[in-house]
TrEMBL record:
Entry protein name: Uncharacterized protein
Signal peptide: 1-17
Keywords associated with the record: Signal
Organism: Caenorhabditis nigoni
Amino acid sequence: MLAILFLCLCLGTNVHAGVIATSKSTITDNTLTSESFDEGAELEKISETCLSNSDFEELGDHSVTPHLAQTFGLLLLPAGVETIGLMELRTALNLEPTPPWNRTSYPSDIDFASASTIQEYYDLRESLVFHKRDFDNKFFPINEHTITTAIAYLDKRFPAIRRLFRRRFEEVRGSTELVDWKTVDRMIFEYVNYFSKVNKAVFQLSPWANPKCFDAINIMNF
């Protein structure tokens, strides 16, 4: 019994002095390990999809009037993709889940100098690429509730988005056992580049980016 307990402790996460030692995680999603998973094909499927009026209304949790739903959706789509990517990035680095939505300010050099753990350093780095803001606007309320709703919609309608981020981050993390400041910087760099790639495909869901999608909406409602 003691031997089993000792083995479990050894396999756990050891956080100390700005370094996180982790065991390589096992991916349980078959779509990630299967050789049939084609990144290009998944991105193409997303970019060739068109959202309807009702899709845009559901994306925004019916929080705006129907004639503003698509415009609101164009703001929510990248925010949702961005947040999904950061959620998967935290998971890949074995860090705490995304904290509650709060207004944030850009960190200073003093903030970085005072960071004593990987978690603190990552939180500061993340705030540079994802500056959380509540837009107190009665027309386009971008906040924790609406973005959470957008994430739920994207996970249901386009589960490949989360899988793409997860697969990419697992590939990068597979080359190192330790998470230190340099690892965080590298993963943030990968995130920024990969977000641009995924978001480019997601942007095509709108008729304003993809003229073929005009047939999916009633243009008179917008």
